[in-house]
Fold this sequence. Notes:
Layout lengths: L17 H54 L3 H13 L1 H9 L9 H4 L8
Helix pairs in contact: 1-2
Amino acid sequence: PMPIPRTTRQTSRTDCPADRLKFFETLRLLLKLTSVSKKKDREQRGQENTSSVWLNRSNELIWLELQAWHAGRSINDQDLYLYAARQAIPDIINEILTFKVDYGNFSSVKNGASLNGT
C-alpha cells in the first residue's frame, strides 16, 4: 500500500509518539534554561563592567594625583596641563610625518669644516 501524503500540519500532541514528545519537551526545557543562564550572564557582566569602570576611574584619579604631586601642581592644574599637552599631539605627529632634512645647512661640512661646538 502507498502512504497517503499529509496536506495539513500536525497540530495535536496525541498524534505524536511519546518518545518524540519527551524529546521536544526536553529540548524546550534545555533552551529555556540556556536563555535564563544567558540572561544571568548578561546581568553579571553588566555588574562587572560597572565595577571595572569604577576601578579604572579610581586608578586614573590616583595616577593624576601622583603626576600632580610629582610636578608640584594641584590636581586641577595637572589636569589642565595634560589637556593642553594632548591638544598638541596632532601637530606634533604632523611635524614628525612631514619632517625633511635641509641638506643646504650641511654644505660647510663638505668643504672640510668641522661641527665642533655646533
